[in-house]
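Input/output pair, single chain:
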Amino acid sequence: MRIDSLILRTAVRLVLPLTLLFAIYAALKGHNGPGGGFIAGLITAVGLCTYRMAFGQRAFFRLLPTHPRWLVFAGLSVAVGVAVVPLLLGEPLLRSGSITLHLGGEGLHLVSAMAFDLGVLLVVVGVAIGMITRLGEELDP
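Output:
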């Protein structure tokens, strides 16, 4: 299903990059406050679904050329990997590790919870896009 509107197509071209930027912010903010992979995944999915409504299924698959199930598979793999690796090191399940990278004079603090959030983000985007794609197949002739 495609909505044929010049205003919508123009707005989506402007809003989609901002939506993705806000999703990145929510994902990075999530390990220290409200947000994280789930919220970032929902924000990304809404932006991508709006793109699909504005430009149609063919343009959407050019933008995101992989099947949604691969996003779900990759996300589950990352999330399970981050959860299980501490067990292999003798730590409790889901134990978060951290590292500080020194770039110039500043230190960049990274935690494994961010990788877990990335996995959740991919799962949420994959499931949402898969549902929207399937519903769109039912509506399109």
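The chain has five helices and two strands. The chain has one domain: 6-139.
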